[in-house]
Amino acid sequence: MGVFSKLFKKNKCPKCGLDLSTVSTIVHSSVPTAKCPQCDTDITNKLEFLDTRSEEEKQIERDAQSALTAEEEKLAKKLSYLSCQQDEQGRTLPEAKVDIRKLGEYLCANGGTNRMKKVAYRVQTLGGDVRTLQIFWDGICGWMA
Question: Could you give the CA distance from residue 134 to residue 107 in angstroms, rounded to a whole number?
């Protein structure tokens, strides 16, 4: 879900001067950002992004920009809430982990990976922490964190 390859233009980091044309990486976000690997300066505007997702997945993301079915919308809202439930150290609460995993298993059993992706993209649209979903859904329907 949301895999982009980052291709750095032939530019230098504005802070440390690192030649960015020698750097490339992969991110898992539909809103990719980047920092210089040497000095941690934001270099997002120095990048070109190559979206390596299938056309089918791009369409799933576009579809998730609008409300889904009533059930999917309800699940997305619940997952959005759960994905942000953290303790004082910023760790996902144990009960939230269990519920996130159960909902992922439910989506897998009732629609498969594409339904999981659609709901995850909707969670992202609603402001939830999609990376949390990716981590706790690892292995469900072949999902890889």
Answer: 13
- SS3 state of residue 24: strand
Same domain, 24 and 48: yes
Residue 10 has pLDDT above 80, yes or no: no
Residues forming beta bridges with residue 113, ordered by sequence position: none
**Token output for 70:** 């009533």
Rounded distance, CA 106 to CA 72, Å? 11
Q: What CA–CA distance (Å, rounded) separates 122 from 66?
A: 8
142 vs 108: CA distance, rounded Å: 9
> Do 126 and 65 reside in the same domain of the chain?
yes
- How far apart CA 101 and CA 137 sit, in angstroms, is 6
Count of the separate structural domains present in the chain: 2
Q: Which residues contact 121 (CB under 8 A, 6 or more apart)?
A: 1, 2, 30, 60, 61, 63, 64, 130
Residue 53 sits at the vertex; the CA angle it makes with 21 and 102, to the nearest 5 degrees, is 120
Its pTM stands at 0.71
Q: What range defines the domain where residue 81 resides?
A: 59-142
* pLDDT for residue 74: 97
